[in-house]
Amino acid sequence: MKEIKDRQQPKKQKTNHTIDYEDKNPPPDDYRQLNIVPDVKEILSGTATYLRKIIVDGVYDNPRQYLDIHFRLLREDFLGPLRDGIDQYLHNVEGKNFNVRIYENVRSHGPRLTPGSGIVYDLRLDPKVASKIFWVNSRRLMFGNLLVLTYNRFNSCIFATVEDRSNIETNFTISVKVLERINMTEQTEGDLDEIAFSHVLTMVETTTYFEAYRPVLKALQSIDITKPFPLEPFLLKLTNEKIPPDYIRRETIYDFTPLLVDPDSPVNSTLSKFERVSFSITYKQSNQVPDKYKSVALLDTNQWPTSDELQLNPKQREALMLALTQKVALIQGPPGTGKTYLGVRIAEMLLHNRSVWCPPGAQSTPILMICHTNHALDQFLELIIERLNINDGVIRVGSQCKNPVIQKFSLRNARQRARENRSIPSHIYHQRHTFLDRKKDAEEELENYQNEIEQSRTDIISLSSLIGGKIIENKHLASLRAPYCGINNETVLFDWLDIIPKYKLIAVDQTNLMDFETPMPNINTIECNQKITSDSYQSSTDEEYINEEEEEEQRRRGETDIDDDDDEFMMRSKRKSESTKVKISRRNDGNSIRERQWNHAQREAEHRDRSIKFIIQNPTTLDDQTVKQIHSDLWHLPMWNRYDLYRYWLLKYQQYLHNSVLEARILYSEAVSALAEKSDSDYYILKDSLIVAMTTTCAAKYHDLLERLQSKIVIVEEAAAIFEAHIITALSSKCEHLILIGDHIQLRPSPSVHRLATKYNMDVSLFERLIKNKFPNVRLNIQHRMRPEISYLMKHFYDDLEDHISVKENRPSIRGVDSDIFFINHSHPETTVADGSSKRNEYEGNYVIALAQYLRKQGYPAEKITILVMYLGQRQFIAKQAKSNNLLRGVHIMVTDNYQGEENDIIILSLVRSSTDKKIGFLKTPNRICVALSRARCGLFVIGNMNLFAEVEDMWEKIVKSLADTNKIGTGLGLSCRQHPKEKYIADTPESFFKRIEGGCNKRCDSRLICGHQCNLMCHNYDVDHRKIVCYKKCQESLPCGHACTKQCHTTTPNQHDSCRVMVEKVISPCGHKILFECGQTPTNNHCKQRVTACLPCGHNVNAPCPIVTRNEHNSCRVIVEKIISPCGHNIRFECARTPTEDDCKQLVIAELPCGHKTDVPCRIASSPYKLQSISCSNPCDTMLSCEHKCAGTCSTCHTGRLHIRCKEKCERSLICSHVCKEPCAVNCPPCERECETRCIHSRCKKKCGQVCSPCKE
């Protein structure tokens, strides 16, 4: 126990990296100069991070202080978990590390150039670990996640982000993009591609989503504090005066037509194609609007229409007034009060009166709409588009749009239309193409270098590569070239190292030479994963004739006869030469020459690969000085010394390539950056639009572009859930009008680091900060969503929330249950999900699944039911259990945080937490409680450990007390039967619901169906009128034939039955045969199963099925008879009805091959000179080779004497030491392996005869 405490003590000291500085203390450095990605020192050292609280009560001194505070806090929010997680890992602190995920035994496969992402590195995870992770539902290694890679326990490390994980399940590989590499040591380590094949990596993944932070941090650093800060008097100095936007004057007139016509009346919107600032909205009912409201002095509220005329309640009218007339307007909307609806009407009013804030002749500027989530943004935008019937002028920026209605308004589509319409100035296109050309040139250069690096790791490099890199000295170059008499031979290094070049293996051992005009014989069909390129050598493919019986079978099956079609032969040869696999089939006898050739080629290839691997993988022992001292004649060096010298050259060449790659990468990165930053084309697309919509993260990415757009009006939905820093980066210096819509009582910003919320106010949004400082705002107070029994719970959060009359009168009771709102109390324990810090409660999961099934049996559609959970782990558990359940198909299963702004008729809520340590996590947060309890319109059913919640949290205690007072809480949900109201039942376990098989009670239905039969189901609450119930009883009515109808009752229609299906004996016409057949059907000749004998015109008899003989289709005689083939005259046994051709002849004849030798070949081949070229001549070569041995090859394998196979005789030459060489003749004589016989008076040499003798030690 003491040992554990001792290990944990350093963690407590090291993880407390932050100090709460007073506002008067100046920052130690300029936030604009800080790297977004930390360095190793910052991660590992105990140096305190400079942080200051967000000022909630009070003003900021200046923009620098404001931006500095927000930048450092936001950076700490993603950096803190990474730092603490690595610290916990290095100090071996026990317990699960929730801050980071650790991956051991990771290996890099080196860099790769991709079209969309540039240079990426492929990393392979340890299969033992990766294979155990369920990647489909895992949030691990998602795109953009930050990774730290190290091989020396963080003495040095590399920062990267995940680029692609699509191959994680198949081969456990991800692609990453390197951000930055920092090193603490003086020694310069290699980059990721250098350490790829020499080190096993440790990879750390932070659980915070880095891509959500990086663009915002960059944007905060790029804000020019020397220029006017957007809305500084309001956002920094908290001026709470009611000041209108600059574009509004005292005399400004607004047309209120949009708010005075029927919201469902037809609307047409038009945007001029020639002058895009010309936009108009036409309302069909505009003539019904009084003229006085078509010209209202905006700032004179006495002229405004009344609430009833605007079809708004008083608070909505007040909020509308605030939004249209104040520079900064805050609208708080409790659940169901219609804040999104009001936001749509505000946007409609602004667009209808666009000429006020975007007058003719002025620079066109769009309204900027931003939201925290993609779903909320698309929902908000869709309502505006549908209301105004807009077809053009709205642009949705960002690639995560899933709404099909909004996708056609994407920036990508807008770019495509701009190219088609040529609406962007030509110089912008020319500029872009210039950058594209630079990028393409850099890509090609990088790709060439990467190919050379890869080749240097797997094969012997060429001499020209060493010369090009200025690696080899002139004297050594001259020595290597000396035997070639000045010929520039690229195989010099191969010969010097006694390695066979790959092309020779391909050309000789696979008999695929392009140099010969006559096609060489083909070796048919072994799979060889040997890649053949057509750069230097193009393999020619030959077809060997196949077994005659097999050929006949192929022809009968309709397959192509390759011997009859020269064009098909050439086409297939071409396809095979271009293929990445050489397919060689061996049908010949295993002892054939081809088989022996293949085996020899395989052995040569394996020996070559082993030799190259041995040379490359061992390090060199030479240095620069030693290499300079090597004598000039390199051909006299022993083989081991040659290997060592080559390794030295290889090392220098790889260093040269690495430096070249770094230079090329710089050029490539510059080209990509210039291409990305040059947003001129996007600017011309966006500036003439009506609305530009994006998420806060996307707004930060496009910060520079938004500054150029200079949007005067910015509307923010979900404003209370957004970090203040996110909103600031979306505002341009020309922003005049900011409308914030949200509710800080529901969801607030959620930092990853809890102490940043509790100690540094990071969970306080701009929306909440302004409201706390008494900034002018309006809170809506009439809700249109929840029935009164549910909205009663909201009294604990909002003291003035009222119910609209519609929810009091038009909310039907939920069928099958005693109460429309009920809390099920239990004490079953939670469990922690293995992958991550999420929680789940299996008892609750099973209960909500059973309840959802029960409600579906009450006749409720699946889309009207939503299962809400408080934890992602619970959602995954329920989704997995419900996957195979047809009743639950279409039921939404959502995490509460992702369901803000949504609603449904029935909500089933699982609270999850239930533990003996009395921890309830973020269920202590009133905001999440408020959201969870306010999503239902008609029915709300909650299951959780309510005793625990009431004991831990005051808010829950109040809620539980109010539930107990109204009998809305208990250990089980009361079930009721619609048909038998007295039958009551308490569902206190998940299994309780299964006792109500059909959703009613345990009695039988006994009702009569439309057909008159009795319903066989148990009591059910769905389809009470039995209009859709299927009757499976037999009809049994008597048919005209006298038999009873066997059809099922539910398939009948009035006065109509199926034909009788009783089997009876019937006579077939016209053949007269008998058959057992359905009574109600008449058999035809095609149904006859009898076989009959018939005489053919040739005199043979045939036994065939009756229908074939009846239709006279039996004329094809298949009796085998003796026939003579024309024109060769050979005999053959063949089908009587067919005429044999020359291609069917199987007779062997003697034919002269192109080489001059004679051999037996099939008659069909002897008649074709072209086909004779495909025959392998087996006559022995017997040519005397230069080594004075007789060639053991055949005429075919030696290509008619032009290229002989390697000599297989023993060498038997005398070596320098006078010993006889025992190696094969075709192999260069190696150093002698016998023991050295040299000795002196002091000692005897213990080395091999072929090695340099050790000097005497005396």
Automatic annotation (TrEMBL):
Domain NF-X1-type as annotated: residue spans: 1011-1037, 1041-1062, 1187-1209, 1217-1234
Coiled-coil stretches noted in the UniProt entry, renumbered to this chain: 432-466
Sequence segments annotated as region (Disordered): 1-30, 535-589
UniProt entry keywords in alphabetical sequence: Coiled coil, Metal-binding, Repeat, Zinc, Zinc-finger
The keyword Repeat is annotated on this UniProt entry: yes
Biased composition (Basic and acidic residues): 17-30, 576-589
Keyword Repeat: yes
Protein's recorded name: NF-X1-type domain-containing protein
Originating organism: Rotaria magnacalcarata
